[in-house]
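Hey, resending since the last one bounced:
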Amino acid sequence: MSTLATSKTNAPASDYFAIFGLPRKLWIEMNALEQKFLQLSWKLHPDNFVNATGAERELSLKRSSELNDAYRALRDPVARVEYLLGIENMRKEGEHKQQAPPELLEEVFELNESLDELREAKSSGSDLTVLKPRLELAEKNFSQKLAEVDAQLQATARDWDVSVDANADDAARKKIMSSLNELLNRRSYIRNLVVNVARELGEA
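The structure tokens again:
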């Protein structure tokens, strides 16, 4: 007989950190996370519920799905930050996400002009030999900026973990989360630029 009903985790279904018995920190030891995932996956394996009731089997499938979602989110550093901000009600993707950061306005304007020229040249069958190197350089430039944002994100994530260990007050924690949110939006914008340029170059 299944013991699912008596072996439920104390973690709320919506808290991925608690599902794995982890504090809400952004540094996670990957080997330990994987081992815990395998352990929990085995407990929820269908073979363990052959003689269970339909309700218990349904619950095991639901918990297995939640476990997989939690593992996918926590094993990826960026998804982990997004998830943390989400459950802390600090993830704000909207208003400025699609606007270029002020210091990048000129470069983004030039990039968009080059992309327009490339599309026009492709549609008219014109020579692309002058345009492609310019866009390849822009792609490299924005890829470097993306790497810089990732480094800032990692540093701010470390600040968050320090604040958790120090039991920092709400104001200090919200300030760090606000910085994380801004970095995520900046990262999303720059990454979209890199992806768009790479796609246009690939089709050229």
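Residues 131-165 form the longest helix (35 residues).

Sorry for the duplicate.
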